[in-house]
Amino acid sequence: MGREVGDAPALEDLLRTLTPQVLGILVRRGGDFAAAEDAVQEALLEAWRHWPEDGTPAEPRGWLVKVAGRKLIDEVRSTTARERRELKVHLEPEPGPTEQDDDALLLLSRCCHPALTSASAIALTLRAVGGLTTAQIAEAFLVPEATMGQRISRAKKTVSGQSFDTPGEVGAVLRVLYLIFNEGFTGSVDLAEEAIRLTRQLAATSDDPEVAGLLALMLLHHARRRARRTASGGVVPLAEQDRSLWDTTMIAEAVDILQDALSRDRLGEYQAQAAIAALHDDAARAEETDWTQILEWYDELLRLAPSPLVALNRAVAVGEVDGPLAALRILDGLPADLPRRDAVAAWLHERAGDLAVAARLYAVAAGRATNTAERDHLTRQAARLNAAAAR
Amino acid sequence: MAKYLLLKHYRSDHAIAQDDMVPMDQWSPDDVTAHIAFMEQVADELRERGEFVDAQALAPEGTFVRYDGEGRPPVTDGPFAETKDLIAGWMVIDVDSQERAYEAAARLSSAPGKDGKPIHEWIEVRPFYGETPTVTE
Fold first, then answer.
1. Which chain A residue shows the shortest CA-CA distance from B36?
2. CATH number for the domain formed by residue range(s) B2-12+23-59+84-127
3. Global pTM?
4. pLDDT higher than threshold 90 for residue B6
5. Where are the beta strands (DSSP E) in B30-135?
């Protein structure tokens, strides 16, 4: 009899922390990914069935590895019998410490394999590493459960044939975690918090400063979550947010993580983005924002990861440092169909005092918005300028 | 129970709607906020009554696409800015009667617009084909 897990949420937390570790161990030992994932799910069900009554075992992870391993062997044996193949892998857990550190990245890089589309990689990561149920993931992405189940099952098949001995590119993993973070909150699962949890797990086992950079970036944005929306769900732009609602503890933690990452002297795009977010979070009032430093970091970011979107965001900083006309000249060189280009142009024209053009551009931007919160916000901006002009 | 689709249009070619329809960016920001809050409120009312099924909003610009033969990329056309009755979004409700569906549509149509006055916009109500009933004789 081991330590008690008193309530269901605590048990759920424990199981979700252990899920990727157990799966990583099984796959590292040569198990087929899809079969191992099924075995882990069965072991989790057993844990749910027995632990609340019998008490949590002293070595919960060892228990799960053993039970899942046994289920996997049963499965492999029956498959092997069918196919008259030799049992090639020995799946009984070995004594002693596991190679858990590498497992975390190995498992994540498998789920974020370049052969998968972003949507598939996200779903597989949340299921296999995050330990969420198919129903929870389906709800978060507003699709029927059967659809999500099929997406995950196809993703598992895609990666099952791939070798699983060397971790893939960390960049692909970070990109998927970043996408999960940006999905935000639609169902019962807060995907932003889920992404932070997964990135934290990875950061605990990786010395790559970009992993720390991404974690810092997520925390710096998440710290503003309470100020970002009105009670009815409307968008509140950064400059107008009630900064007393920002989570200063989270910001302080993120700044520590970022400074530690920067001191390792291997700069990357996530560290640069986090540095920009940190400078915003550092300003007690919007007018105190250090735009000169922000612009320097955007120059760095544009060098590290050049893209029209970064150039657009940099133009906003240029608008603050060198004035709206300088920023509008940069916009002239950017693609017309770049998302949010019209909204930035509208803002810059407003700053330049050209209110009629700004109102028209806000209306155009509203028509091109990709979500209703943004659309409504931009419509209100157009309405605000039109109402002022009519007065 | 029967399901109905309540369609909301960006603009309508119906005479009454045309007269009353002032583009949203010509309202005051508070009127815009009130209109959006009202839409949310109607959805919440339908949820509380156990009648809400789904609600989605559509972007104004779309494209027409069609098959152009084996191995050829799809043909695209549009967007057509002048398209009449452009769909802005929908609600799906599951209600006891057609009468109740009309009542819900009228409630949606009473949404406040410029200066807080009801916009009286036309809501298109379309019944879904249902399942074959178990007892048919």
1. A376
2. 3.30.70.1060
3. 0.81
4. yes
5. 52-57, 64-66, 75-77, 87-95, 123-127
